[in-house]
Amino acid sequence: MPTTPAGILQGCPSGGTFSGQVNPGVYSCTGSITFSASASSCPGGQTVCINYTGSGSTVNGGKVQIFDWPDSKGQTNINMSGAVVNLYDQNSATPGCDGTGGYECGDPTALQVFSSGSGPVVVGNGANAATFDGILYAPDMSMTVNGGQLLWIGKFTVNQVTVDGNPNFSVHYDPRLGGVAQPTWQVKNFSVVPPSTFSLP
Question: Which of 13, 45, 107, 176 is at 20 to 30 A from 152, Cα to Cα?
Answer without folding.
Answer: 13
